[in-house]
Amino acid sequence: MNLALFFIERHIKIFNLMIKRRPRNKLISDINVVPYIDVMLVLLVVFMISAPLMVQGVLVNLPEVASEALPRKVADPLIISIKNNGSYYLETSATSGLPLSLEELSINVGNILEANPGQQVVVRGDAEVKYERVMSMMSELQALGAKEIGLITKPPS
C-alpha cells in the first residue's frame, strides 16, 4: 500500500511540474508595421516616377517667348489646344483628347461660358499652326463672350 501511495504521489508531483512548466499561449497585442512601411515606400517610388510622365492635355509644341504670367483667378482656366494640323481640342473631362471642329468648339465653349460668364480662357497653340487658325478661334471666343483670353507659351531655354 505504501508503495502504491508513493507512486501516486510521485505522479501527481510530476504532473503538477508539467502543468507549471507548460508555456502559455499569450495573445500578442503589438502590430507589426514593417510590411506597411515597405508597401508605403514602394507606392511612394511608383508615384514619384509616374507623376512627371503624366502630361495634361494634348501634346503641342509651344512657341518659346519671354512673357509675364497672367493673374490667375480662383477657378482653373478653360484650356483650348490647337495642334500643328489645325485641329482644336477642348481640355474638359467630357471632350479631353477629342479633335473638334470650330463649330463644335464654339458650341461647347458657349455652354461653359453661359454657366460661368467670367471664365478665363487660355489657348495652347502649336508653334507651327497657321496664325489664321488661332485668330479665327480667338474671334469666335470673343463673339461667345469670353472676356479674358490668354496664350500659353514656353519660357525660352
**Percent of residues in β-strands:** 5-15%
Number of helices: 4
Percent in helix? 40-55%
Structural class: alpha/beta
Major beta sheet, strand line-up: 2-1-3-4
Low-confidence stretches: none
Write the CATH fold name of the domain at 78-151. Nucleotidyltransferase, domain 5
Could you report the average pLDDT, rounded to the nearest whole number? 81
The largest sheet is: 4 strands, mixed
Radius of gyration: 36 Å
Termini Cα gap: 108 Å
Question: Which sequence of SSEs, written as H and E, runs from N to C?
Answer: HHEEHEHE
Morphology call: rod-shaped
Question: Would you write up a description of this structure?
Answer:
This protein has 157 residues and is of the alpha/beta class. It has a domain at 78-151: Nucleotidyltransferase, domain 5 (2-Layer Sandwich), CATH 3.30.420.270. The protein is 41% helix and 11% strand. The protein contains four helices and four strands, in the order ααββαβαβ. It has a four-stranded mixed beta sheet with strand order 2-1-3-4, covered by helices on one side. A hairpin with a 5-residue loop joins β1 and β2 (88-90). α3 (102-115) runs parallel beside α4. The relative contact order is 0.15. The mean pLDDT is 81.
Keywords:
rod-shaped, single chain, Nucleotidyltransferase, domain 5, four-stranded mixed beta sheet, alpha/beta, 4 helices, 157 residues
